[in-house]
# Entry
Amino acid sequence: MAADHHRVTLVVGNSRLGRQQLNALPKRTGDSSLSDDELLLFDMLFDSNASVAQLSSSVYPIHMNCKHNHSLDDGELSNTIDSLLSRQLIRSVGNSAKSQCTIYSLTESGGLLWERERQPNWSQYVNTSIRHDVTKGTGDFLIGFNRSIVR
# Structure
């Protein structure tokens, strides 16, 4: 059986960032009604799935490899997940019974909102994946739109 593990990096260039810049929230356009907290959740979900436990403020910076965090406690996170589900901006993947283990992903409309707010430079996008397969061994994958970055 194969298991995929993903690490995503959106490359922002070679500049050295000061401590204040590392703690700053990512820039947004303000072109949607999403709250800053909702948009930070979308940052984790834009190209992967996550559970409520992974979206929790207690581990968000670890999973996102950043210093900023959303401000939602566990109750507020649950209410926000319910709101995003009812607005059809996220969906549950697989088992529809809501629990800490339920996995969520962005819907197409949620992804379009995220993209409108963050305006990613897709030519700088890199996705790495390690696939473990007991019959075929381990494989590393690097996916990107810019050949010079992927090399």
